[in-house]
Design brief:
Number of strands: 4
Strand content: under 5%
Largest sheet: 2 strands, antiparallel
Radius of gyration: 25 Å
Number of helices: 9
């Protein structure tokens, strides 16, 4: 939960609301625009794809009006910018920030409910049943088969962080698959924040495990070579070591971002074929194809949360293992 709050605060500062499309002006202005516009120019087609995958200052909620396509937009509050020295930071909530908060709350409630149910079952000497049993099996698998083997000896301290990463990313991914939801992990600011937090955890783990030897992960200084070779190779390989540190969080953020946004673009592009052709005859093909992609997206939601957790565990294990 601490990680969820930290991610929410950081993303709030990074993910600024997108500029809203201006509405049409007065009747006079519209008439003047019509006169100045070329006669052959056609009105712009509405964009259904970009608003769904991008951030914004509005959020969709259910509506019972068919005129509104069963969807109503709510304007999120606009807060005054915060001035930090020469910087001006807009902390106003956006659509993806709201999804982050919802994912954090759902994640906490789900895991706490499962923990309470498991504690009650353990008190009676019986194994947990139903939903609590599924959560316990997932936690034990991630802990025993993913985190501990990759992190290495005495890696219990990293289990809560890696489990939080897995469930938090999973809930954010799944929220984008439900009606009126949005995938926060399709925002590069969100995935970059997750990667930056993971980067600091990896580096701090290395500092604690290596002590003064941590400098060897930055400056390449091979101990099995002569001094002349060390002086020759170190200026060449040290930048490579630094680039290797930087590319890890970059790869983490781009991998998650690209995989989550790609599926939504494909689904929306398939559905838009119905409106492009404007015929009911083509409806079955895009609907069947989009349904197949959505089933695949459900698998991808779990897979990307799993892959992110595995890679962070591997990175922690690699930097800790160099101490032995």
């Amino acid at each position: 939960m601490r990680f969820a709050r930290l991610a929410f605060a950081l993303v709030s500062a990074i993910a600024l609301p997108l500029a809203l499309t201006p509405r049409a002006g007065t009747a006079q202005g519209s008439a003047a625009a019509t006169q100045t516009a070329p006669a052959a120019e056609k009105p712009a087609q509405p964009d259904f794809i970009t608003p769904h995958i991008s951030d914004g200052s509005k959020i969709d909620v259910p509506s019972f009006s068919l005129r509104e396509n069963l969807t109503r937009e709510i304007e999120l509050p606009k807060w005054a910018p915060v001035h930090i020295g020469p910087l001006t930071v807009d902390l106003s909530p956006t659509k993806h920030v709201v999804m982050l908060l919802i994912a954090a709350v759902l994640c906490a409630l789900t895991l706490m409910t499962a923990a309470v149910s498991q504690a009650r079952s353990a008190a009676t000497g019986k194994p947990p049943r139903g939903f609590a049993n599924a959560i316990e099996a997932t936690v034990l698998y991630i802990r025993n088969e993913v985190i501990i083997p990759n992190v290495g000896r005495h890696g219990e301290a990293f289990v809560p962080f890696c489990l939080t990463l897995f469930f938090f990313i999973l809930f954010m991914n799944l929220l984008g698959l439900i009606p009126y939801g949005a995938t926060a992990t399709s925002n590069i600011s969100v995935t970059a924040t997750l990667a930056i937090v993971s980067f600091f955890v990896v580096e701090i783990a290395g500092m604690r495990a290596l002590g003064k030897g941590y400098i060897n992960t930055i400056v390449y200084w091979p101990h099995d070579m002569s001094f002349a070779m060390k002086v020759f190779i170190s200026p060449i390989m040290t930048p490579v070591e630094l680039i290797g540190k930087i590319t890890k969080p970059v790869a983490l953020s781009i991998r998650l971002f690209a995989n989550m946004i790609a599926g939504h673009v494909v689904v929306l592009a398939l559905i838009s074929l119905i409106f492009t052709f404007g015929s009911w005859l083509v409806v079955p093909v895009p609907v069947i194809a989009a349904t197949g992609i959505m089933v695949l997206e459900l698998f991808v939601a779990f897979l990307q949360a799993f892959v992110f957790t595995v890679l962070v565990s591997v990175f922690i294990g690699q930097i800790r293992e160099s101490a032995h």
